[in-house]
Write a structure and sequence with these properties.
With 358 residues, the protein is of the alpha/beta class. It folds into 2 domains: 181 residues, Medium-chain alcohol dehydrogenases, catalytic domain (Quinone Oxidoreductase, Chain A, domain 1); 137 residues, 3-Layer(aba) Sandwich (Rossmann fold), CATH 3.40.50.720. The chain is built from 11 helices and 16 strands.
């Protein structure tokens, strides 16, 4: 089978690998679509994990082989995959810190080498411990929507950690695919969303995803405009969906006492930022983070995506064949006005090279 193999920093090669062999308690899935995730982009560009690997974890496809001991799945079923599933029984799981669970940190989907997602390949092996996260895709929905379940899950988990109230005023910094999902899910909760970005096209898109106000993040007087649009006491919360450290301190200054700043994009270690600890202590401002997904939210996520209350179709700007995966990684790393979610389609060669922006 064809697969995109990570051989070093910014070194991706289309190679021929053996189709994975499955055990009696596993599935083999033919990949139809796999989203390009910012965490994979950072791993590829910063070399944070050793090669060789096959990345890609926002995956959907068709079941082509079912292990003899697997129940509940049949060959031919269309499924969305979930690569991280916690044990639900250890100390951190009992505290609902699922991303810190030792089992969770093991990737359960692979196309070969060290398990790393494997979606940038034609076939993936789905291990037994992640089978509880596999979701069947309804006939009225597409593989592309199925591949978006995992990123929507990560954002819904973060929104629940933020725990906003209806009527709250929340600034979402960054309106890429992740920021737009925050804007939509917060607006569904009755939150007044102020969306900021550097690209006018993304600000226009933010309005269609539920933003009440949109602001150019590079415009002069940005913080003053935010203060005018929020309540007299400040914002209730800020979601930082861009990996820019200076924004963290600015966000802490913009929220009211008792407000919250949620970090979502700071996934590369070593990026320092200056904070005034008295804001946390005296002003009781919370600085919180959220990373990766929550298996207990899969049903809720499926309802949101497949009902199209969270219509992910408007987030997908490009579908690329497997040979152009490196291009997709580069486009995701350096977005332009017409770039949102990049999708890799290893198996469906009839897919167009790109979709026009909506």
């Amino acid at each position: 089978m064809r697969a995109v193999v990570y051989r070093g920093v910014n070194d991706l090669r289309v190679e021929v690998l053996p189709v994975p062999r499955i055990r009696s308690d596993e599935l083999l899935v033919k990949v139809a679509a796999c989203g390009v995730c910012p965490t994979d982009v950072k791993k590829i560009q910063h070399g944070t994990v050793p090669p060789p690997r096959v990345f890609g974890h926002e995956t959907s496809g068709t079941v082509v082989r079912v292990g003899a001991r697997v129940k509940g799945f049949r060959v031919g079923e269309r499924v969305a995959l979930h690569h991280h599933v916690p044990c639900l029984d250890c100390h951190v799981c009992r505290h609902r810190a699922f991303a810190q669970c030792a089992q969770y940190k093991k990737t359960g989907i692979t196309a070969g080498f060290e398990p790393a997602g494997g979606g940038y390949a034609e076939y993936v092996r789905v291990m037994s411990f992640v089978l509880p996260g596999v979701v069947k895709i309804p006939g009225s929905n597409s593989f592309l929507e199925g591949a978006m379940l995992e990123p929507v899950n990560t954002v819904l988990k973060a929104v629940k950690r933020l725990d906003p109230r209806a009527g709250d005023c929340v600034l979402v910094v960054g309106q890429g695919p992740i920021g737009l999902m925050f804007t939509r899910l917060l607006s569904l909760r009755g939150v007044n969303v102020i969306a900021s970005d550097l690209l006018p096209a993304r600000l226009r898109r933010a309005r269609s995803f539920g933003a009440r106000r949109v602001l150019d993040g590079a415009a002069a007087g940005f913080t003053d405009r935010v203060r005018r649009l929020s309540s007299a006491s400040g914002l209730d919360a800020v979601v930082v969906a861009v990996p820019v450290s200076r924004v963290v301190g600015e966000a802490m200054n913009l929220i009211r006492g008792g407000g919250r700043v949620l970090l979502f994009a700071h996934t590369v270690r070593g990026a320092g930022c200056e904070l005034d600890p008295s804001q946390v202590c005296v002003d009781e401002k919370d600085l919180i983070g959220s990373y990766s997904s929550d298996i207990t939210l899969q049903r809720e996520v499926s309802r949101l995506v497949f009902s199209r209350r969270m219509d992910v179709r408007g987030l997908i700007s490009h579908i690329l064949p497997i040979e152009r995966t490196a291009e997709g990684i580069q486009r995701a790393a350096s977005p332009t006005s017409n770039t949102l979610k990049m999708m890799i389609s290893p198996g469906d060669t009839h897919c167009p090279a790109n979709l026009p922006s909506r």
